[in-house]
Each structure stands twice: as C-alpha cells, then as structure tokens.
Design brief:
The protein has one domain: Orthogonal Bundle (MetI-like fold). α3 packs across α5, α6 crosses α7 and α8 runs antiparallel to α11. The chain is mainly α. It has eleven helices and no strands. It is 77% helix and 0% strand.
Length: 232
C-alpha cells in the first residue's frame, strides 16, 4: 500500500509542478500516437468502406487478414519495422531508426488493421439498400461515401477509439524502433518500463496515472461525440 500511495503522491507532484520531464514525455506520447491514429484513420476507413461495400475476388481473404491484424503482437510489428528501417534494410537510407517517426510508423501498422476491421463492421451494419437509394437520387460516389460515413459514424468513432487505444498503450514496438532515448524518443509506456527496470516504482506509477488520464481524456471526448443523440 505504501508503494501505491507513494505513486499517487508522485503523480500529484508531477501534475502540480508541471514537471518538464513529464510534460516532454507526455507530449511525445500524444504526438506520436495521435499521428499514428490519424494515419490509420486516413488509410483504414476508406479500406474498410471498400471491403464492406464492394465485391471482388479475394475479398474474404483480405477481411480475414484485417481481422488477423487486430491481434498483431506489437513486438512482431517492431521487429519487422526495425528490419525495414535498419541501416541495411530497404528503407535504411531514410535514417528513421530510433526516431519518433519510426514509432509513428510502427504504431500506424498496429492501428491500421484495427481501424479497418471496426470500420468494416460499421459500414456493414447499414441497410444494404441505403447506398442504392442515395445513388438513385443522383449522388456521386464521393457524396454517397460521405453520407454512408455519416450514417456509420458510431462505428467509425469506435474504430478511432480502438485504434488510439491500441497504440497509446503499446510498449514493445515503440521500445524496439524508438530506442527509448530520454528526451528524444521516449514515450510514456517506454518510460514506465524503464523506471520499473530501475526500481523507481513511485515515478513509474506517477507516469502510469498520467497515461491513464491522457487516454481517458481522449476517449471521453470521442465518447461524447459518439453518444450525442440524433436530432428528432
């Protein structure tokens, strides 16, 4: 109990003093996870729409692949991203290894299948006749897609929340490709793991509370948007 209490006191101290180290780590987490989520949304929602609305050879295989991707172990993603970004890898010339950008890439790979699968489910819950009705009124393909996204917004917001939740909480890939470099590529999850390794449990608990507050704040905003009642 003393350990937990010390952690709570440390979290309060960090928040009250706006500890520069804490702010830097928290901002890095927000930046890389936010960017990875944005990338996964820009890629995942259109792909989810295509898989839900189109019929073509190999579709079932791609759906199964996206569902499999929801369970991708972060360390496996970290391994393969490291191989591609390593100095002798295909993209080694970019010099991205052990940078925040590498973390964004790894987290986007983790989040994309999650967003695709949730978006696919959201679009599939719509009435199949709705698209035909919209197009019969003269709507273009883009107008049709935008209207369907509006109708499926509850599922799409769930996709965004699931994607963000999948990356803000992961540690393995971020540690492997980012290097956990203090003051540069260290995020909250890797900092917590590092502090636990050093035996600084009070600081680790403090950082974990900061992480939970950040995650809750993001989820609360999206949940509020998701649960708004439609105008009658």
């Amino acid at each position: 109990m003393d350990l937990i209490w010390d952690g709570l006191v440390e979290a309060f101290r960090l928040l009250r003093r706006l500890d520069p180290e804490m702010l830097q780590i928290a901002w890095m987490s927000i930046k890389v996870s936010g960017m990875a989520t944005l990338i996964s949304v820009l890629i995942g929602i259109p792909l989810g729409a295509v898989l839900a609305l189109a019929r073509f050879p190999g579709r079932s295989f791609l759906v199964s692949l996206s569902n499999l991707g929801m369970g991708l172990p972060p360390v496996v993603v970290g391994l393969w991203v490291s191989i591609f970004l390593w100095r002798n890898g295909p993209f080694g010339f970019l010099g991205l290894m052990y940078t925040p950008t590498a973390i964004v890439v790894a987290q986007a790979v983790i989040a994309c299948p999650i967003v695709i699968s949730f978006s696919l489910a959201g679009f599939q819950q719509l009435n199949p006749k709705l698209r035909l009705q919209i197009m019969s009124l003269g709507a273009t393909r883009w107008q049709t897609l935008l209207y369907l996204m509006r109708e499926a917004r509850l599922g799409l917001l769930a996709a965004v929340m699931a994607g963000f939740g999948g990356v803000i909480s992961e540690v393995g890939a971020s540690m492997m490709v980012g290097g956990n470099i203090k003051g540069y590529s260290q995020v909250l999850t890797t900092a917590i793991a590092s502090e636990v390794g050093k035996g600084a449990f009070d600081f680790a608990i403090g950082l974990s509370i900061i992480l939970l507050l950040l995650a809750y704040g993001f989820m609360a905003v999206l949940t509020s948007a998701q649960q708004k009642r439609r105008p009658q």
